[in-house]
């Protein structure tokens, strides 16, 4: 008896199947179907079966109409593709699926603007729920699709093949081709480029997948919202966007925005989305590059912003600004750049006009690659003077004793913590303009002479002199009195700035946002508003620390005199009673620990560059400083990464200075478990070799991309140094870097670096190489022999 209801159910399903099939079939548009551009949008679009996408005419302000595809269920009606981005059409224009197959766009006069399609064989057109508009044949095979001709956007399920590109729009409201593009080249390279605007030719690359052997075949934006580059055999080469969101709950798109940043956006399909509390608007899920301002530095083109302007990041968005003395050519289009609002220095009267010009300082601002002369081992004042005496010099850049002269137009302008140095902008004083200004000065001088002559002829002048003398006396006396209560004066020889506690409290908004904390204090983020929003990291030393004063003096005196690209720079300090703070440059990419042990493995070349950078920084501290410095706590958490992912050694709070005639010292145990050299535990004198030991452990972590101790690993793999030596001895180094294809393809360097690391962690400090020799071995200048077994001291460090 059970067979009857079961059979009835099957029969019902069979009856309903045609209706299900019909419901999932796109609304096909037959040959001869057409759309007309109209202001009321009536009859001007074809909608996908679900209603999520539409194909047709969209009005762009008062400029005209685009033949486009857009998200139709959201109020923004966001456009994701267009046919005529560079030539808008007017009301009455028509798009038609012609009788002989092609899809044609004609303006109101009947002139053909655009056409696609193979012609013969096309039976219908359809707007699909994926956002893809297709022309198909009688067998439902797509003969043409919009996914194969992208403009600036990719949608889930869309792919890009070799030779395909996305070109950014000109601006948020202007859909014509802009100044940036994303391209998978025919050689397999995947890059972001600036363009030779107004053409779409590639100019300067500012982001790539950094594959050592380009082998990219397709970029895939899959149904899960994951975008990646694959090889011809289907293996994943590089992720582009790894942050995913459910396509069931979110609309998604990836677009090269008009500012040159490639962003992955999501938009909740309903306010009841189960994937978090996202606003009912487009939100950025991820983007590349992390800082477009500093990434674009081509020899040609204006850079991230227009000529004579500079770029800075505000809430992860590019902001273009003009330097002092300059204004935008067109405030509505800042990419057109800036112009001088004063008469430039005359080359016929350079020496005569020098007194008419002055400099405005811009901290952490530069226009790289746009200099025409440079000088080394000079002072900032010398740099100012050499630019002032050169009529071609519009600005100078000074950093670390080097001076670059620059002339307009200036390109690649950027401002940010990673830039460093100082731009010196030469402008005319008091906005005086050429001869008119000179005449005005002469009139003022003549008036002054007349007044003085009159005063000299009367006794009133004597009284004025007495009053003036009295004022000057009290002013100087007051200044002297104020000077006696200043807690700490600036250290000009070290180019450090002295801050008051109130200034740093204001900069950090009351020490609001904590970046981290350590044994000697807490670090906060701050913004120097008067220095063009320069981000800084402010370390507040704990008041309760008994040797805090000594620690403070050690840091100020040691770090203030250091100068190396692989060290975090000290910018200033505060020393008011119990309030002792240090102001460092801010490293936006965090610590090497987060980079190395995060959710995804960093690529092999980036890890190797971090190893090189750390080694060179330690070599500088040990042998190239005026005073030798032992860091005493080298570990991934104390290696920070700047905007270019350059390794920068930080936290000298544990450093122990050595005098010029001193090679070793003794002190209480410092450092972090797992990175501490054995001599700390044996009450032996401490030398720079403790840093060499810590670097050896760090180098093994960089090679293997795992921590020095992992309790959940197999017993023989728990201690990284022990396991690494076993792999080296047994010829099984591939086990140390298994599942790391890039490292597996570079086993010669893997072997060399593991050998160097084992030499660095020898129990006897005398067997460890110096950091100079370590650097030479890494660079290949010195051969690396097989190291002895280091296991004799393992038990003392775990």
UniProtKB/TrEMBL annotation:
Instruction: Indicate the principal place this protein occupies in or around the cell.
Output: membrane
Q: What class of enzyme is it?
A: transferase
Q: Which reaction does it catalyse?
A: L-seryl-[protein] + ATP = O-phospho-L-seryl-[protein] + ADP + H(+); L-threonyl-[protein] + ATP = O-phospho-L-threonyl-[protein] + ADP + H(+)
| Top-level taxon of origin | Eukaryota
EC number annotated for this UniProt entry: 2.7.11.1
Q: Where is the signal peptide?
A: 1-23
Q: What InterPro entries does this protein's entry cite?
A: Bulb-type_lectin_dom, Bulb-type_lectin_dom_sf, G-type_lectin_kinases/EP1-like, Kinase-like_dom_sf, Pan_app, Prot_kinase_dom, Protein_kinase_ATP_BS, Ser/Thr_kinase_AS
Protein name (database record): Receptor-like serine/threonine-protein kinase
